[in-house]
Write a structure and sequence with these properties.
Layout (H helix, E strand, L loop, with lengths): L14 E5 L16 H15 L3 E5 L16 H11 L3 E3 L6 H8 L6 E3 L7 H4 L3 H8 L4 E4 L10 H5 L6 E3 L1 H15 L5 E5 L8 H8 L4 E4 L3 H8 L14 H14 L2 E3 L3 E5 L8 E5 L8 E5 L1 H13 L2 E5 L12 H12 L3 E5 L1 H9 L8 E2 L4 H7 L5 H4 L5
Parallel strand pairs: 1-2, 1-5, 2-4, 3-4, 5-6, 7-8, 7-13, 8-9, 13-14, 14-15
Antiparallel strand pairs: 10-11, 10-12
Helix pairs in contact: 1-2, 9-10, 11-12
The protein binds adenosine-5'-diphosphate and magnesium ion.
Adenosine-5'-diphosphate binds next to strand 12 and helix 13.
């Protein structure tokens, strides 16, 4: 990676503003329902504490739309972080101005404080320069560990790094290295599996990966549009009629590039997207008129699994079916298990795909599960992420 990390700078005694992605789900009582993202930032926070930095954490949570709102307060996150870290996390009731300034002035070496939700200010998402300056004023150094927010040019992800020196945290470094290596120098065979609801969400990803992979596997709802492009009747399945030509074009490009292109050969079809509805497995060219495809069938799962097990690099984005409903989760879970069993470097990107891998119980056997949904997609599209670009080069 050509960006500096916390290892490349002296943090001893310095005030270090760390942008983390603590945008975690809260339960009805307002407690942290899933602390994966908090845990993911621990290595960077611990390193800074051990190296006697004065640690100032900043994050967004939800969409408070530029106003203070207790529902989106980071207080419960600070409490959970305190438990995980085993040390005090001083919660500050504001993001910029007098209150944080005084808190930072009293912050000792190795101490940790957390600012309130940066999105309590509309200036954050506008990347307002004055607001970025007010944030930067609190610190000597900026550390970006929020890969999940790196595709946004906001004040706390991009603006601040133009004012004080910015470096990557360990999570950011790992994300860039794992995703970056897959795109630039993958061990081969390199297999990508793209699924999810719609082709339109993933055109950029498919386009970029076509130039890099040996095999491209398409599953999930978007496969319907490709099957339609091959002349098959998809019944009542989710289908993007205006993307059929594009699907055909992508398949032509794959053929021209010598990329093996795989589509489902069988499907789980149902009368409705309802776990109680009548369902059956049919060949992909036998979807009954009034039925819809909601998962790949067992033969497809077996075929995809073989390609995954024979690969040396696998990138997976997008579930193979409506995995939120048990009767239509089989294909997705099967692909998840194939990744776990493969000797390949396995990378999972996308929020729903990461959730599916958790649900399948194989998360611990995947090389890298990206913490960034939208950010990992944009990275796989080959785009430059503003939060990364703004950091100092090595
Ligand atoms: P990710 O978050 O991993 O990038 P997406 O958001 O693109 O994944 O896609 C996930 C969604 O796609 C899930 O909600 C799932 O129910 C839906 N989906 C997958 N297959 C189908 C299908 N055959 N029909 C309708 N929806 C589907
Ligand atoms: Mg999603």
């Amino acid at each position: 990676m050509n960006k500096k990390t916390v290892r490349d700078i002296d943090v001893n005694g310095k005030r270090v503003l760390v942008r983390v992605d603590f945008n975690v789900p809260l339960d009805k009582e307002g407690n942290v329902a899933d602390d994966t993202r908090i845990r993911a930032a621990l290595p960077t926070i611990r390193y800074l504490v051990e190296n006697r930095a004065r640690v100032i954490l900043a994050s967004h949570l939800g969409r408070p739309k530029g106003a203070f709102n207790d529902r989106y307060s980071l207080k419960p996150v600070a409490r959970r972080l305190e438990e995980l870290l085993g040390r005090e996390v001083i919660m500050v009731e504001d993001v910029v101005g007098e209150i944080p300034r005084q808190a930072v002035a009293g912050l000792g070496e190795g101490q940790v404080m957390m600012l309130e939700n940066v999105r309590f200010y509309a200036e954050e998402e506008k990347n307002d320069e004055k607001f970025a300056r007010a944030l930067a004023e609190l610190a000597d150094i900026f550390v970006n560990d929020a890969f999940g927010a790196a595709h946004r040019a906001h004040a706390s992800t991009e603006g601040v790094a133009r004012i004080i020196p910015g470096v990557a945290g360990f999570l950011m470094e790992k994300e860039i290295e794992m995703l970056g290596r897959a795109l630039s120098s993958p061990d081969r065979p390199f297999v990508a599996i793209i699924g999810g609801a719609k082709v339109s969400d993933k055109i950029g990803v498919i386009g970029n990966l076509l130039g890099k992979v040996d095999t491209l596997i398409i599953g999930g709802g978007m496969a319907n549009t490709f099957l339609k492009a091959k002349g098959l009747d998809m019944g009542k399945s989710l289908l993007e009629g205006d993307k059929v030509d594009l699907a055909r074009e992508l398949m032509d490009r794959a053929a021209a590039a010598g990329v093996k292109f795989m589509l489902p050969v069988d499907l789980v079809v149902s009368r409705a997207a309802d776990p109680e509805a009548e369902r059956r497995v049919v060949p992909a060219d036998r979807v009954p008129e009034e039925w819809m495809a909601l998962d790949i069938g067992p033969e497809s799962a077996g075929m995809f699994g073989k390609a995954i097990r024979e690969a040396r690099t696998v990138v997976w984005n997008g579930p193979m079916g409506v995995f939120e409903m048990a009767p239509f989760a089989g294909g997705t879970f099967s692909v998840a298990r194939s990744l776990a069993e493969s000797g390949a470097v396995t990378i999972v990107g996308g929020g729903d795909s990461a959730a599916a891998v958790e649900k399948a119980g194989v998360a611990g056997r995947i090389s890298h599960i990206s913490t960034g949904g939208g950010a990992s997609l944009e990275f796989l599209e080959g785009r430059q992420l503003p939060g990364i670009v703004a950091l100092q080069d090595k």
